[in-house]
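REQUEST ID: PR-0412
SUBMITTED BY: lab tech R.K.
PRIORITY: routine
TASK: structure prediction, single protein chain
INPUT:
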Amino acid sequence: MTLDLPRDLPAALTDRTAAWRLIADLAAFWDAPLQPGDGRTGAELEAAEARLGLRLPAALREAHLLLGNRPDLTSNQDTLLPPEELYVDRDHLVYRVENQSCAYWGVPLAALDQDDPPTFVWPDAADPETAPWTARLSVECLAVVLTEPLFDEDAHADSGDVDPKYLTGWTELPPLHADGVAVRHLWRPDALLMLHEDEWLFARAVDEPTLGALREEIPAHWLNY
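STATUS: complete
OUTPUT:
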């Protein structure tokens, strides 16, 4: 299918229904469309709420109902916690954990009454400081689905360090994260790039020939998965 992220992403940043629709379009674009059974059940979410003694935000419930059983879209590098593993730490509901436990993402307990609350990040379990991550939980879910498929080593994906000056001819997407988060996404109709700290590049292409052409076009130190 065709996908126009520069056109569709701005609406998804302010409307969570549009965010879920764009997530479904992204899955289909990578030839891995969402199917019945890809989400967790209402009963599983209710069990998590009973265990935690709190009500999950609507956006988190909707995300799990949509794609809670799709780790290829949510958990190649970092893990979107399943309902049975959600927990509370430093007055936040933790919903995502970095793969080496070097970062944690959560929603403030004080914001759980919001349908689509803001998200925060902190670097490790011992650090008491949290920092803004995304303005809305639905935007975080969209950012996850824009990012995690780029780490799928079974897909047409690769990574390497790069000088950003070589990334010409790409459309930079609107930022999804709070100010100070050094993550950029760049797009063209046959591939998606994520640039971290203006140094480390992650790429996914629609097919292997396109990925091979990217490796030739962009002078990066590719890992060649």
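NOTES: The chain has a mean pLDDT of 95.
REVIEWED BY: pending
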